[in-house]
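Lecture notes, unit on protein representations.

Consider one protein chain, 122 amino acids long.
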Amino acid sequence: MNTLLAPALRSCLPRLSHWLGWCGLCTLLWGAPAVAQTPASTQPASAASAKSALDAQLFYQLLLGEISLQRGDPGAAYSLVLDAARRSRDGQLFQRAIQMALQARVGESALEAARAWSVSDP
């Protein structure tokens, strides 16, 4: 039975490693996994009632930005993240756009993101 099971496991390994990579990316984007969060009943009322600005479109845009950066296209990554930051007015996304521009050694783009951030949150 082990000889029949081994080829099946070997064929699943690439898909499993791909899936684990996506899980790792999601963990990087949002911190700790959802399992580790405390139940809503033990959180203060203000924290429980706060809603995330992350919707499906924003999530997809950020995911594409991070994938573009990993694949060696920092210009596209910067544009996607800066657009998401402008739409959501999230300071952390502005910081990420600035980091991407600096990583790509494009100072003018980093300055543009910093100015957009200061206009968004004076």
